[in-house]
Amino acid sequence: MIFASELKPGYVIKYNGQLHTIQKYKYNWSGRNEATVTLKMKNIENGSTVDTSMKGGEKLEDVVLDQREMNYIYKNGDYYALMDNETYEQIEVHIDDLGDIVNFLAEEGTVFVSFYEERPVSFSLPKNVTLIVEYTEPGEKGDSTGNPLKPAKLNTGAEVNVPLFVNIGDKIVIDTSNGEYLSRA
């Protein structure tokens, strides 16, 4: 059991008999009243979202997950094939289950997969990933006031803003939590 005040984004809990992952968490405390927690949760079974508030001292059933490091090996239509790095076991996951991580998932990229009773329920990427710029406009010389950025299309299909000195073919490091450019690789 876990108290509502101890939850964080990414935790998986059992709520109303179904598995939910915490997407957003806000702790509210007033000097006179008991602390409350506002949660936005996603139902793992059907993909629906739930917004709820509860007392900080309320107990919830947390779920023990088995986390494995896997590699993305290929795409087959709307399915992504992932391979366990230790057992070489492969699974196929629908693009909708992966969510926004597909924007920064390149072939042979690492994916952390959380399993509940041998079923994949949660997916995440490392904090930073290295991707290749497939297309961007050339930067103009002399335009260096402030921090000028330009759009760039990556090898995963995602678009991010990069500094003017980044060119086609450059390898760049992206922060997967916010999708921002960090540096050249």
UniProtKB/TrEMBL annotation:
Main localization of the protein described in the UniProt heading: cytoplasm
Domain Translation elongation factor P/YeiP central intervals: 67-121
Role played: Involved in peptide bond synthesis. Stimulates efficient translation and peptide-bond synthesis on native or reconstituted 70S ribosomes in vitro. Probably functions indirectly by altering the affinity of the ribosome for aminoacyl-tRNA, thus increasing their reactivity as acceptors for peptidyl transferase.
PROSITE patterns: EFP
Gene3D superfamilies (UniProt xref): 2.30.30.30, Nucleic acid-binding proteins
Keyword vocabulary terms for this entry: Cytoplasm, Elongation factor, Protein biosynthesis
Family: Belongs to the elongation factor P family.
Entry's Gene Ontology BP terms: peptide biosynthetic process
GO annotations of cellular component type: cytosol
Protein name: Elongation factor P
GO molecular function annotations of the record: translation elongation factor activity
Pathway(s) per entry: Protein biosynthesis; polypeptide chain elongation
Domain Elongation factor P C-terminal stretches: 129-184
Cellular compartments annotated: Cytoplasm
Pfam families, per the entry: EFP, EFP_N, Elong-fact-P_C
